[in-house]
Each structure stands twice: as structure tokens, then as C-alpha cells.
């Protein structure tokens, strides 16, 4: 896995089922409520601090996703993407990155085409069995409950950046 992670410059994430637990809560006004895990957010910041970009590629459109992305300084946000592979190709074109420079985290069958292309393919613990079968790594934590933080730490360790970041907090 270290060889696959060596050149990763972008961690691309699905949202529903990865950054969230996949549940949809609708309040009394008919408004959708989305829950994000704060540790996932901190993991994203750690990656960014280490020079690894983070992007979102999701099949649905949500104001909550746009707000969360803005708060985490995620500039690569692709919402309402019906065909994830086409969306992924657009990400590569806009960033100038190759497959060998991208890691992807998904949870369901629509993520499979992207998972098969990237350098490091990750499925969350509660992902569809068919996706987990094609993953290089399956998280121990489910989507929306620290899975992204787990992947962030894994990437930082595999690329040799973890110890330097940890020293910042161990004063």
C-alpha cells in the first residue's frame, strides 16, 4: 500500500455514506439536515496542512455540503454528478493529476468505476460488499463516524508525513 500512496496528491471523497453516515434527516419544515463528523474534518485539515489536496465528488446536491466544503477550505467540490467516472475525469482534467496521484474513498456501487482507476482505493467499513472487494483498504470505522480521519492518518503515515505533523501537537 505504501507504493500506491507514495505519489498521492489528492484525496477524493464521496459524501453520502463517507463524510456522512448516509442517513437523510428531514425536519418539520421539510428541510434536510446533514451530520458531519468533526474528526473527519480535522483529518481533512491535517491532509491539507501536509500538502495533500482534498476534493468531494457526490451524486447529490446539497447546500450543507457546499457550506462544509467552504468551512474546510475544500476547493474541489463536484455535486450532482450522475456519472462518477465522468466526474472523476473532469477532476483530473481540472487538476492536471493522473490516476497514480489520486486516492478515493467510496461506499456504494456508483463509486466502483472510480475506485478501479485510482492509485489507492478505499471503502468505508459499511460499504457495499462489491465495493469492499475492490478496495486496497477498508476502514475500520463506518462512513460519517471517523472513516475519513482514519484514511487521513493512513495516508499521512504511508507518505511519511505523520510524525512531523504529530510533533506540532506534542509540545
Question: Could you characterize the architecture of this molecule?
Answer:
38% of the residues lie in helices and 16% in strands. The chain has 171 residues and is α/β, with parallel strands linked by helices. The protein has a single domain, classed as HAD superfamily/HAD-like (Rossmann fold, 3-Layer(aba) Sandwich), CATH 3.40.50.1000. The strands form 2 sheets. Strands 5-4-1-6-7-8 form a 6-stranded parallel sheet, with helices on both faces. A two-stranded antiparallel sheet has the order 2-3. The protein is globular. The chain starts with a helix and ends with a helix. The mean pLDDT is 96.
Any descriptors?
171 residues; alpha/beta; six-stranded parallel β-sheet; two-stranded antiparallel sheet; 8 helices; 8 strands
Number of helices, where a helix is a run of at least 4 consecutive DSSP H or I residues: 8
Strand content: 15-25%
How would a crystallographer describe the biggest sheet?
A: 6 strands, parallel
What is the CATH C-level name? Answer: Alpha Beta
How many angstroms does the end-to-end distance come to? 31 Å
Structural class: alpha/beta
Model regions low in confidence, pLDDT < 50 over at least 5 residues? none
Arrangement of strands in the largest sheet? 5-4-1-6-7-8
In percent, how helical is the residue content?
25-40%
The residue-averaged pLDDT reads 96
> Can you tell me the CATH superfamily?
HAD superfamily/HAD-like
In CATH, the topology is named Rossmann fold
CATH architecture: 3-Layer(aba) Sandwich
Q: What general outline do the C-alpha atoms trace?
A: globular
Order of helices and strands: HEEEHEHEHEHEHEHH
Q: Quick one: how many beta strands?
A: 8
Tell me the radius of gyration. Answer: 15 Å
Number of domains: 1
